[in-house]
Amino acid sequence: xxxxxxxxxxxxxxxPQPGYGQxxxxxxxxxxxxxxxxxxxxxxxxxxxxxxxxYCTYASFPSKAVAANPVSALSSPLDLAPPPSSQPPISxxxxxxxxxxxxxxxxxxxxxxxxxxxxxxxxxxxxxxxGPPPSHQQPFPSxxxxxxPPPSSQPxxxxxxxxxxxxxxxxxxxxQPFPNSxxxxxxRASxxxPPPPIQHSFPPRGHPPSSQPxxxxxxxxxxxxxxxxxxxxxxxxxxxxxxxPSQGPMPxxxxxxxxxxxxxxxxxxxxxxxxxxxxxxxxxxPPQQNGAFGQPVGPQTGYAGPQYPxxxxxxxxxxxxxxxxRLDPDSIPSPIQVIEDDRANKxxxxxxxxxxxxxxxxxTTNFQVKDQGNASPRFIRCTAYxxxxxxxxxxxSQVPLAAVIKPLAVLPPDETLPYIVDHxxxxxxxxxxxxxYMCPYMQFxxxxxxxxxxxxxxxxxxxxxxxxxxxxxxxxxxxxxRPELSLGSYEFVATVDYCKSSLAQPQMMVVxxxxxxxLPLLDGFLVNVNDSRMVIESLLDQIPEMFxxxxxxxxxxxxVIQAGLEALKAADCAGKLFVFHxxxxxxxxxxxxxxxxxxxxxxxxxxxxxxxxQSGFYSNLSKECVAQGxxxxxxxxxxxxxxxxxxxVVPVSTGGSVYKYTxxxxxxxxxxxxxxxxxxxxxxxxxxxxxxxxxSTGIRxxxxxxxxxxxxxxxVELAGLDCDKTVTVEFRHDDKLSEDTxxxxxxxxxxxxxxxxxxxxxxxxxxxxxxxxxxxxxxxETDTIINFISKYAxxxxxxxxxxxxxxxxxxxxxxxxxxxxxxCASPSSAGQLILPECMKLLPVYLNCVLKSDVLQPGADIxxxxxxxxxxxxxxxxxxxxxxxxxxxxxPLVKLDGGSLxxxxxxxxxxxxxxxxxxxxxxxxxxxxxxANAQQELLxxxxxxxxxxxxxPNMTSLPELDNPFSQRLREIIDSFRSxxxxxMKLEYKLMVVKQEDKAELIFKHYLCEDKSVxxxxxxxxxxxxxxxxxxxxxx
Length: 1034
Description:
Elements: E1 75-79, H1 253-256, E2 288-289, E3 292-293, H2 335-346, E4 351-352, E5 369-370, E6 380-382, E7 386-388, H3 391-397, E8 402-405, E9 420-421, E10 443-445, E11 450-452, E12 459-461, H4 483-486, E13 489-493, E14 502-503, H5 533-546, H6 558-571, E15 573-581, H7 617-628, E16 630-636, H8 644-647, H9 649-653, E17 658-660, H10 666-682, E18 685-695, E19 699-705, E20 716-722, E21 727-733, E22 743-752, E23 758-770, H11 773-778, H12 782-796, H13 802-824, E24 832-836, H14 842-850, H15 863-873, H16 878-885, E25 888-891, E26 916-920, E27 924-929, H17 935-942, H18 963-978, E28 984-985, E29 991-993, H19 999-1004, H20 1018-1033
Helix pairs in contact: 6-7, 12-14, 12-16, 13-14, 13-20
C-alpha cells in the first residue's frame, strides 16, 4: 500500500543537546569569608563553544583522561558553607549550612556520552591556584542592575573547573524545627513512595537535627549579564564567583584583598551594614556562625516564635546576631529563564523524532514535530530518555521511569495526522510470540521473508501478501511507502476479530421506581439528531418549566446512571451519558450517601478516609458501565458538600470527566458551563477502548495512572477515551538492558471512532540505555517527572496519611539529588549543593506540588474541592500539570505584535504597583491591577482612567475599540483554546485590585512565596532540600 509517504530527511540535530542553556550564576553580596584559599577543582580539557543567548550550554564531553567525576556542566553547584567565627554556635534554622551560591561546573565523564563532541577540539585550560582571582572569575555585586553588552557579544573565557567552596562546619545542636509554623516536610521511610525507592542507596537515618525558625538564605547571582565589578559600598566580605563567566577587567588591589575566598581566617569583628528595606521585601536574614543560623532579631514573616526550649547558651550569653543583606531571588534557578532559553534554542527548528533517546523541547515551547520513527512528544513523554541498564542502577538513582501517554492527542494544523493503514481481512502484521504490531523496530531478514521482533527477538514469517525485497542496507524497498515501517504513530483498520459493537446515540428515559431499575421501553430511543432537532430543542426548553414548582429536595444519583446503562444495553451499543447533579443523594435508593464532611479529620491519620468512596456500590456500577461501553460525564452544581470522592468514581473509572460549578449562577457561570459542555460533545473521542503497553525484554509496565478501569494487570479499559485523556505508565526492570539495543515501548489502543469504525492506534518509542549515572541524569525531563510524582502522591493519599506522602516525596527528591552529588559530581565541600542541569527546577516544582490544595490545604479549601482536584490531575498531560502547579504570570505593559510578553516569576515581589498582570492557572484566569497603574493602561483595558472606578465585580472585559484591548482578549482566548476546560475570569475575582480582599486568593497561586497554609517558600525549601541531601551523604 502506498500512502505517498515521503522519505524523511535526516535529523538536522544529530544527537540532541541535553539539558538547557546554563547561565553563569554568581553569589550575592553579604557572603562570608572563608578560612582557606579557593578550590579550583580538577583542570579539564573542557571548553564551551559559543552557544546562543550568551549562556554556557553543554557542548562537548571531556576525554576519559580527565580526573574522575568532575562536576557536570549540566550541574548547578551551590555553595552552602559556614563562616569562620570565634563565637560559639547557637540554634540553627534547618540545622543547615550557610547560604547557597550558584555556580557553573564542567561536565561529567561518561562511558557512553549521548552526543558526539564538536569538530573543533577545546583548548587546554589554565588552572588557577590562588592569589587574586583571574579576570574570568570576578565578583559581581548583586545590587548592580543588569548592564553590559548582550550575552551573545560577550567574549568567552576558558571553562576551567573552578568549583570554589568552603569547608563544612560542625552540625548545630539538635532541636525541633519550625515552632509555631508548618515546616517543610522531613523525609521518612514509613511508606513506599513513588517507585523505584524500594531499596535506598543510602543508610537509614532518623529525623534531621532541628533548628530555630528562620528562612535559609542562599546567595546566588541573577542568571543574566553582569556589569563590571565595583568595590563594595558596605563593609563586610563581597561576593565571590566561580565558573567561566565573561572576561572582564581585573579589580583594584584593594578589592581583590577583600574577596571572600582570600580573607585569612578570623572572627568577624562587626556586622555589615544592612540595606534599607524596600516595599514588599521581607526582613533580612541573620548570618551564620560555625554552621548555625543565629537567633532572629525581631519578628520574621511566617517564622515568628520564641527561642526554642533547651537551646544551649555558651559563655555569658548568646552571640550577637548581626544583620545580613537580603537574598536576591533572581540568583536561584529560575523557571522563567529555563522556559525562555528552551524557546530560544528549540522553537526555530522542527523537532525530528528519528534520533533515539533525544529529549524533546519543553511543553512550554511552541515547536513543530516531524515523525521519523518515534512517536511525537505530543503523544508520549518520558521521565528519562536514557534508561538505566540494571534495576540496581535504577534503585540507586531513584529517578522514576515512566511515560505519560496521550493516545488521541490533537495535533496542530502544521503536523500530519496518523495515517490509517488497511491490511484487509488479514489484519495487521504481528509478532507470533509477544503480539507486538509491525513497527520500525522490526528487523527483516532472509531477504525479507522473515522479520525479527525488536521486543522479544522472536522470528516470524512474513505473509506472502506483505512480502517485499530488501535494499543494500537491509531495509525493505517500500519502507517509506508504509507508515508502520517508517513512522512512530499510525492507525490500523481493525478486522472483525477486534470489533465489539456499534456507536450509541444520546437518549433520555424516566423510571419512577428507583429501587428496582428496569427498562420502560425496548425501542424508540434512538433518533436522528438532524431530523429531530426541533423536537430536542423543544424538550430542553420544557424541562425547566416542568420542575420549576417542585418542592422535592432529596435526590438520587445511582439509579440515574443505571437507567442510562440499561438503555445502552437494550440498544446493544456503546455511548456517552451526561449526568447533571446538584446535591448529595440522600433519598432512599441504591447509592444513597450520608454527609461525612468532617474537617477535624484533616491533618490526621484518618484524613485518607475522606478521599475513599463511601461504599462499593459505585465501584460495581462502574464495572458494568465499562463492560457495556457506557462513558459517564458528570456536571456538578453544588451549594454544599456532595461527596465528590464518591460521586466521581463512575466518571473516573469509565474514562469520563467531572465538571464542578460551585454556587452556580446563570448570569456569571453560564458561559463557562456552555463552553465546557459544547467542547465535551464536540471533541474527538473513541468508545470501547482497550489499551496495552508492550516493552522490550528487560523492562515491563507495572503501574498505571489515569481515568480507566483494569480487570487484569495488563489491559487498560476505557468506556470512553477522548483527546484530553492521558494514561501514565510506570516501568520496572525484570532483566538487564543492553546499551546497544536500548529499550522499546509500544502503546496500542483499540477503539471505536465516532464514525463507527473499529481502529487500532499504535505509538512507538525507543530510548537509549546507559550504564553510567551521568548519562541518566543528562537526559531526564523534570516536567514529566513532576507529573508522575504528583499523580503517585495524589493516589497514595487514598491509603496513606497526607503528611507521610509529603515526607516521602521530599525523601525521594533528596535521594535523586544526593545520588547525583555522590556519583556524578567531583569531590567538593559539603556545604555546596550541586543540582543536575536538567533537574535544577526539581526543587521548586516539587515544592509547588507539596503546597497544592490536595496535599496542604488552606482553611478555606473544602473537601469536595480537594477530591475534585485529585481526580482532575489523574488524567492531566504534562503541559496541563505544569501550568497547574506553576501558573503563568504575564505583565500587561506592552502587547505588541503577535508574541506574548515575557512571563515573570510567581512571587509577590514581581508585582509592580504601576502594572497590570494576567495569571493563568489552567483552571482560572485572574487580572491583577496595581494601585498605581497608569491611566492610559486602565483606559485601554477597562475604559476608565482611575483605579477607584474599576468595578471588581465585572464578569467580562469590556470590548473596547483599541489595539491593546483587542490583543488582550485575543491572548485570553488563546489561553482558553490551549486548555481542556474553559477558564473563566473568576466572578468577583476577574479583576483583583491591589489590597482588595480578593487579593488573598490571587496570592494563593504565587507559588514561590510562603503559603498561608504553612508551605515553605522556594528559597526555604531549596535550603531544606540541601539539608536533606547532606544528611543522606553523611
